[in-house]
Amino acid sequence: MKRIKKGDQVLVTTGRSKGQKGQVLQLLERDRLLVENVNMVKKHTKPDPNRGTQGGIIEREGPIHASNVQLFNPATGKGERVGFKTLGDGTKVRIFRSNGEAVDI
User: Fold this and answer.
1) What is the per-residue pLDDT for 96?
2) Is the Cα dihedral 100, 23, 37, 55 positive or negative?
3) Which of 4, 36, 41, 99 sits 20 to 30 Å CA-CA off 56?
4) Percentage of the chain surpassing pLDDT 70?
5) 68 φ, ψ to 5°?
6) Cα distance between residue 60 and residue 18, in whole Å
7) DSSP letters of 59-97?
8) DSSP string over 9-28
9) What's the CA gap between 34 and 26, in Å, rounded?
10) Cα 21 to the chain's mean position, in Å?
11) Using an 8 Å Cβ cutoff, are 72 and 58 in contact?
């Protein structure tokens, strides 16, 4: 089970985008992820008449390492560390380390 999943609200802790919040759009290989409106990069693209796309400079999200983000806790308004706990029925859930409340419901 991963500490951060697609659709989670995260807070960037280090780097150029420090302090920004966003939703995880995609998980990539080797603990990298794409976060909405975070680490924006410019990509130069060539036109492709077969696809009907124009050329030019587009701005899109760049990958960021999972160690540079923390899961956002709406109760405290801060980014917090995540742990795991096994419930009585045998299911494994993610919890916030600070207060022990479950992330997944």
Assistant:
1) 95
2) positive
3) 36
4) 99
5) -95, 10
6) 17
7) EEEPPEEGGGEEEEETTTTEEE-EEEEE-TTS-EEEEET
8) EEEE-SSTTTT-EEEEEEEE
9) 5
10) 9
11) no
On the CB side of 73, CA atoms within 13 Å amount to 17
Q: Is the confidence at residue 86, as pLDDT, over 90?
A: yes
- Is the CB of residue 62 less than 8 Å from the CB of residue 44? no
Q: For residue 29, give both structure tokens.
A: 């290989």
> What domains, with CATH codes, occur in the chain?
9-77 (2.30.30.30)
CA angle 39, 2, 59 (to 5 degrees): 15
Measured CA to CA, the distance from residue 35 to residue 66 in angstroms comes to: 10
* pLDDT tens for each residue of 14-36: 999 999 999 999 999 999 999 99
